[in-house]
Amino acid sequence: MDSLYETIKSNSLVKSGNQYKTTDFEAEKNRITTHFRNNGVYFFQPTYVNFDIDTIQKENKADINLIINNYSYQDKDSTRTEPFKIYKISDVNIYTDYSPTKSNAKITDSTTYKNFNLYSHEKLKYKPHAITDAIFITKGGLFADNKTVLTTRYLNNLKIFNYPSVQYEIDPRDTTYSSLIAKIYLTPRKKYSFGTSLDITHSNIQDIGIALSVSETIRNVFNGAETLEASIRGNIGASKDLANPNNRFFNVAEYGIDLKLNVPRIFMPFSTDKIIKKSMIPSTLMAIGFARQTNIGLDKENFTGAFTYNWTPKKNNTARFDLFNAQFVQNLNPNNYFNVYGSSYRALNEIGKTYNTEPSYFNDTTDLIIETGTSGFINNVLSNNTALAPSDKAYQAVKSIEERRLRLTENDFILATSYTFTKTTKTDLLDNNFYLFKTKIESAGSLLSLIANTTNQVENKNGKFQLFNLEYSEYIKTEFDYIKHWELSKEKVFAVRTFFGIAIPFGNSNYIPFSRSYFSGGSNDNRAWQPYSLGPGSSGAKDDFNEANMKIALSSEFRFKILGELKGALFADAGNIWNVFDNVNDEKSTFNGFKSLKDIALGTGFGLRYDLSFFVIRFDFGFKTYNPANEPGEKWFREYNFGNSVLNFGINYPF
Question: What is the pLDDT of residues 437-449, one digit of tens each?
Answer without folding.
Answer: 999 999 999 999 9
